[in-house]
Specification:
467 residues, alpha/beta, 8-stranded mixed beta sheet, 14 helices
Length: 467
């Protein structure tokens, strides 16, 4: 008989008809009443248990992804128990201060995480009618972000990087320093496919925030099962949603590296025998990424917010690669890291002209940050664009052929990189310090070149024609 007649108190029906094991997948025949996304518990002869999620059901055959992989399993000596419900995890403040693997199992030597309630890791869409637009800033303490691409509560803002650039250091610094203006705040950090050395670095860098009970850390390392990598961001977002909308906190979810996540998705897709799309990624990559990124926001009538900051590496620095390309369509802006800035020794190596926060006006300016913030940011970017043009001209004709004003723009370019963008990897700058640095950089230019700034701001900072 393929299924047992008796059910446990959580409704499991067990089958012994596992027909095939294929990579991280198990194919179970002759199933009845099984649904997509249902949670499965596999029991080996030795008593060991492994977990799975139903990917597909067709005419009595279920394809199940095994979270711990299928290594060491004999398909003839295993029972598959279908629970009749999707995978759920306990949620609540018990996650704060904990370090777990990508499946939510403790790595810190503590007990399993418990919560008063459990939520499905797939999440539930926010009713569009109840969605509040993102508003108010999340300040990171990093000038390159706070001044020019301000992160807004409820926003999804991606960081595009490339191999060899310090994106993990930047992610850890953002997670360690971010605040929400004195309101209850915490960080959920989900690392996917990282090395053990990088995992140790993240734990050390975020130790202070973890000790303060303001951090949930999920670490999926490169040698963990590939299926776990697909689960990690979903658990992180499920935990974050309860902390935000149930506990009233503003939650920043940092997810790195989404390219590792997409590669795991591609591997599972290949094991399922699906027809590949661009660069062998599955055709549903866009909708899958959207199912993660769109779990941010604010809900009318509920305190708290979920802000999502996904980081991804662009293979060969190619911004047209499917992962950054599709991410750019979904997110509300991007922060782009530059090899050129990195080669100059500038940290964080942000390319300001390629970066954009489409919701910055919702979280910065009068009543939110400072009255002059948006004008200063616009003037900085305009001057930087002009400086880059003059720099290209100087490469052609030489600096001696430039006008005195043009040479001032070259000074501005250097002051912008060294005086505003560059900071130490553990340096926390207040918004006041950041904007005052921005003014010092702008004042290297003559007053006549600062046409985007109102006269009262220029007078207050002593702008003159001599700079």
């Amino acid at each position: 008989m393929n299924s047992t007649d008796d059910r446990s108190d959580w409704g499991r029906v067990e089958y012994t008809s596992v027909r095939e094991l294929r990579g991280p997948l198990a194919v179970v025949d002759k199933v009845e009443g099984v649904g997509w996304d249902e949670f499965v518990l596999f029991t080996l002869d030795s008593g060991e248990q492994r977990h799975g999620v139903v990917l597909e059901v067709d005419r009595g055959t279920a394809v199940v992804q095994v979270l711990e992989d299928t290594a060491g399993i004999d398909p003839e000596r295993i029972r598959a128990g279908f629970t009749g419900a999707p995978l759920r995890v306990p949620v609540g403040p018990g996650w704060l201060g904990r370090v777990c693997n990508g499946r939510g199992e403790p790595l810190d030597g503590g007990p399993p995480v418990f919560g008063a309630a459990a939520s499905a890791v797939g999440g539930r869409p926010i009713n569009p009618v109840r969605r509040e637009p993102p508003a108010e800033p999340v300040l990171t303490g990093i000038s390159a972000i706070d001044a020019l691409t301000t992160l807004v509560r409820g926003q999804k803002l991606a960081v595009f990087s490339a191999a060899g650039l310090p994106h993990l250091e930047l992610a850890a610094q953002i997670a360690a320093q971010s605040t929400a203006g004195g309101e209850p705040f915490c960080v959920v950090f989900a690392a996917m496919g990282v090395t053990h050395a990088d995992a140790d670095f993240v734990r050390d860098a975020l130790e202070g925030r973890s000790a303060a009970g303001e951090l949930v850390l999920l670490l999926n390392t490169a040698d963990d099962p590939v299926i776990e990598r697909i689960l990690t961001p979903r658990i992180a977002l499920t935990v974050a949603e309860q902390l935000a909308f149930g506990e009233g906190r503003h939650v920043l979810v940092v997810m790195t590296d989404m390219t590792s996540y997409a590669e795991a998705l591609r591997e599972v897709s290949a094991a399922r025998g699906e027809i590949p799309a661009r660069r062998a990624y599955p055709g549903y990559l866009y909708s899958d990424l959207a199912s993660l990124y769109e779990r941010c926001g604010r809900i009318r009538g509920l305190p708290g917010s979920v802000t999502v900051l996904p980081l991804l590496t662009m293979p060969a620095g190619d911004i047209t690669h499917p992962v950054p390309d599709l991410t750019g369509y979904i997110t509300e802006g991007q922060i782009v890291l530059s090899r050129e800035m990195h080669a100059k020794g500038v940290y964080p190596p942000v390319d300001a002209l390629s970066s954009l926060s489409r919701l910055m006006r919702k979280g910065a300016g009068p009543g939110r940050t400072r009255d002059d913030h948006l004008d200063v940011a616009a003037q900085l970017l305009a001057a930087l664009a002009r400086a880059r043009q003059i720099k290209e001209l100087a490469d052609l004709v030489g600096q001696a052929a430039l006008s005195p004003t043009d040479r001032r723009y070259l000074d501005f370019d250097e002051a912008f990189a060294r005086g505003l963008m560059a900071q130490q990897r553990d340096e926390l700058r207040t918004l006041e310090q950041t904007l005052e640095r921005a003014w010092q950089v702008l004042l290297t230019l003559p007053r006549s070149q600062l046409a985007m700034l109102p006269a009262e701001f220029l007078d207050a900072h002593g702008a003159t024609e001599s700079g």
